[in-house]
Write a structure and sequence with these properties.
By secondary structure, this protein is α/β, with parallel strands linked by helices. It is built from eleven helices and nine strands. The strands form two sheets. It has a six-stranded mixed sheet, with helices on both faces. Strand 2, helix 1 and strand 3 form a beta-alpha-beta unit. The longest helix is centred in the last third of the chain and has 16 residues. It starts with 6 loop residues before the first strand and ends in a 9-residue tail after the last helix.
Length: 257
Amino acid sequence: MTKYSTILVDKSDGVATITLNRPERLNAWTHEMNVELQDAIGSINDDADVGAMVFTGAGRGFCSGADIRDNFKARIDGKRQGGGGDWIDLVRSSKPMIAAVNGACVGIGATMILPMDVIIASTEAKFGMLFVKMGVTPELASSHFLTQRVGFGAANEMCLTGRLYSGEEAYAKRLADHVVAPDELLPTALGLAREMAENPSRQLRWVKQLITQNGSETDIKKVHEREGQVLTQAYDSAEHHEAVSAFLEKRKPVFKN
């Protein structure tokens, strides 16, 4: 398994757990972390033994935002670092992703998980869109994904105040899809990931593709056309044929991911 400096990767029972691993800095985001995350996700997408991913943080935080020295100070000093590809495209084209938010989740820590499929918050989590307090503005298409998740008014409130929200408040605003006690966070996330991972991988990614394209589409004809195009592929797939055979033979289907 590839060794990383800022993240940990563990694979078990069809699920890969990716842990942001800079606990001394509350897992503050760095360019190196970004490159490692993208490499790990790409490897997992190519691993037929893994059907879904869970993301969490080591220690007390999930991700406290961009590392000030690595990111903002370096940019001011003219030492901006590159690397990494299109995060949004990677997340939305990948196997299912679940964020298990265990603590501080602010700035890019929050925006990086908004396009993931499910967000589960610990009662000890803290969410914040703190960009305005740093004199900057939201990124990673978060002005779109946040509005989709919480609605127009709540998105404005969160971004214009830059205040922190507890796990319960995030759940009430629908920023988080579930809120659980700290000791239930990973078991809940892993259980949901395993449930997703039991389904055929190609179909899971096709579903994500449709939701990405159609979630805010206003042309219903386009929505229907896209679904029809993907459904035609699905009808011809070995996975669909196996599911039908398994149903008729009264057995559990065996999907090869």
